[in-house]
Design brief:
28% of the residues lie in helices and 21% in strands. It is globular, with a radius of gyration of 15 Å.
């Protein structure tokens, strides 16, 4: 089923996922903090199923993908009413990047639990954050199978919705359970971070 996916954050992951979505026939609203003018070249390359929009427009799409820097997530709390929205959390809780890649100390909480708390009522699904973007950009069909994308969520319905979306773009979703357990495995520095698997 064709859906509109709003992508907040137009860096490597956001653009890479957008390409897969557009190729599968979905519509994409790409947004960032710099405004629509900065995205005209990207959406022109993506084609007619993609357009640039404001962060608010992207947040009002059927499904919302977060691929923005960790430090910016707190700016989204009051952008829209998040209650009932399916939100894919593709963020990683980095507070520094190369060469050290430090992550924020979240205590016992998973990073996606923090995201869920910042977006009251949202149905948060952790996905798309574990694979290096250059690997994610490749053909998901490989060696007679499909490249794996892990999913976890506290909401079974949202998890099923995102899993169907993942299948529609050629990847194989693997369910890891709820956010407290599954997303901890997926998040930056977790045991599944950067793991590239093929489901045969």
């Amino acid at each position: 089923m064709e859906q509109t996916i709003g992508i907040i954050g137009a860096g490597h992951i956001g653009q890479t996922v957008a390409r897969h979505l557009v190729a599968a026939g979905h519509k994409v609203i790409l947004s960032n903090q710099s405004g629509t003018e900065s995205l005209q070249g990207v959406v022109a390359e993506l084609g007619k199923n993609a357009r640039a929009g404001s962060v608010r427009e992207a947040a009002n799409a059927d499904i919302v993908l977060l691929s923005l820097p960790w430090s910016q997530i707190r700016t989204l709390t009051e952008i829209v009413d998040w209650n009932g929205k399916t939100v894919i959390d593709a963020t990683n809780h980095f507070i520094t990047y190369a060469p050290d890649f430090k992550v924020e100390d979240l205590g016992q909480r998973a990073s996606s639990e923090v995201v869920a708390a910042l977006l009251p009522g949202a149905k948060v699904v952790k996905a798309f954050n574990t694979i290096f973007y250059k690997t994610l950009a490749e053909d998901p069909h490989l060696a007679g199978g499909n490249r794996v994308l892990f999913v976890s969520s506290n909401d079974p319905g949202a998890k099923a919705q995102v899993s169907q979306l993942i299948e529609s773009i050629g990847f194989a979703p693997v369910d890891l359970g709820d956010l407290a357990t599954g997303s901890k495995l997926q998040q930056a520095k977790g045991p599944l971070a950067t793991l590239n698997l093929i489901k045969l």
